[in-house]
Design brief:
3 copies of one chain form a homotrimer. Chain A has 248 residues and is mostly beta strands. Chain A contains 1 helix and 30 strands.
Chain lengths: 248, 248, 248
Amino acid sequence: MISPTAIVSSKANIGKDAEVGPFCIIHDNVVLGDHVRIQPYCELGVETKLSDGSPLVVGSGSLIRSHSTFYEGSSFGESLVTGHQVTVRELTKAGKNLQIGTLGDIEGHCIIGDYVRMHSNVHIGHYSTVGNFVWIFPYVVLTNDPHPPSKVQRGCFLEDYSVIATMSVVLPGVRVGTHSLVGAHSLVSRDVAPHTVVAGVPAKKLCKTDKIVLQDGSGRPAYPWPRHFHRGYPDEIVELWKSSFGPD
Amino acid sequence: MISPTAIVSSKANIGKDAEVGPFCIIHDNVVLGDHVRIQPYCELGVETKLSDGSPLVVGSGSLIRSHSTFYEGSSFGESLVTGHQVTVRELTKAGKNLQIGTLGDIEGHCIIGDYVRMHSNVHIGHYSTVGNFVWIFPYVVLTNDPHPPSKVQRGCFLEDYSVIATMSVVLPGVRVGTHSLVGAHSLVSRDVAPHTVVAGVPAKKLCKTDKIVLQDGSGRPAYPWPRHFHRGYPDEIVELWKSSFGPD
Amino acid sequence: MISPTAIVSSKANIGKDAEVGPFCIIHDNVVLGDHVRIQPYCELGVETKLSDGSPLVVGSGSLIRSHSTFYEGSSFGESLVTGHQVTVRELTKAGKNLQIGTLGDIEGHCIIGDYVRMHSNVHIGHYSTVGNFVWIFPYVVLTNDPHPPSKVQRGCFLEDYSVIATMSVVLPGVRVGTHSLVGAHSLVSRDVAPHTVVAGVPAKKLCKTDKIVLQDGSGRPAYPWPRHFHRGYPDEIVELWKSSFGPD
């Protein structure tokens, strides 16, 4: 259902059973999949000369919450879910089942894998690369300029299953290894080895992730997290995790 | 006065002399007190399956500034004042005279006392408990997961009159004692004793709060702050403070 | 062009060829220059008793992006450019060619020079002073209260050409010297000498800025940055820089 107060271009390509809320604006260069829900006050497909002419593509089953802004030229796989007041610029390509929390700000020219979870108020700088199953917690910033301001732009790289805790900054060009954990309020200035916990300003290695004990009384290690945390992932993924990481 | 461009459910319960600004949306499950003012582009009473069916309740004399979003199932005492672009999820219960600054993000399932002051861009994670007369400054985050991501959720506890300065993170389950002060840009990983100043990453005890001298030329201690800071509090509270903490 | 869904006061003074997007609200006490573009969902000239009756003035050629809020009583020179969801309170005076990134929050009573660049999610506290050609990166906060909460307000002072990197906090009354660089995730508690790099919590002097080598293969120093970074500045400024700082 398209709200009568929404302004929707006749050139936009909107899938079946889409919902577009009150006071939304959908521009020409937009492709929305089936069963997409767009909450009020969203503007999708904002034009920019910085893009390449490609449309904003939002996969089927997606939910974009209110007051969000998406530019043309970015694409999202199925089942994107956003919080409120999200901004996404042009030329970012994201896989399926991405979650972007409230106040998220994705600057554009980023590559984002499948099943990535970004909590509230995450800032993903230009040219960042985020793998699959990555978790990014509130107020994390991925940077890109090693000596600002300059023309040099070196995006960060977060490998699969890595976790960046609240209020941490990843410096330009840094690679955070698979299944690693960056503690809260850290400044990550060097590459992080896989399965490693780092923390501090600047971040230093604390231990391997398997030293962290799950505080649910089980006495088991908290990482790799896919062993015990399954909420929101499809059954086939969880089954795959069981064979990869062992049962909970 | 209800703006003619606002979309207001006939099932919403709106007190007398309420003002609802242009382009607002008020859903069914909303109870607004008398003399409430809702600025433009606000959406109140957003439905969610994660709530318990209770309404959004906003006490009399409240002001919700523009571009804000409140879900059903949370309640606020009289004289709530928000900044712009605030998001409040379900099942939070707040006392009277709460202030939430611009870009504030309250995740839900929180308990908040009376006369709490949150500045801009504060993030209150699920299951946080905030006492009375607490001050929370910009970019503070209260967290809840000791080893993210997991199913374990341990909210923080900020006791009465505590003060958390800018850009500090409180780790899960930490209790910040009454009348204590967390310095700016700190990571609070352990409980903070009452009347104590902590700072750093991780935060360490610096001194008792009465060692901090008010920089107004008086030479008096800056804490307990209710001795000298009265702006925005009712006379009866200030009188009570005088008998509790001594005159300024 | 004024959108038919915008609500524009007949008392507002709007220059020629202005564009006002859908669902905007322009109040009485607003002066917009020629060729100004206001994107959707913006509210300009919000009334406040805390101002002095002067209008919101936005210089010619400015672009205010969507979901932004400007109060009456502040003024901006020509060619202001904002991101989305910006909030600017009353009684701030800014020069020309200011950029305020998405989610920027300028509290009011600030003085801002010419050609200042604020990236996303910058918080400028009351009574801050920002010189010319200053760069402020994401999640930086300029504070003002030395012992919060109190009635004492000491704004920060950022001198010309200074650079504050991501997630840094400048404490009240601190002066950051010309051409200096504050590293990411720092807490600046003391004045910073000109041409100096500081970093850490609290920030300490690391070196002079000319020790930082530009990572573009040239082997030249990265600072003063106007020697190599010219994007977005007018030719006459760049020519002036060449004579002041030497050619790139």
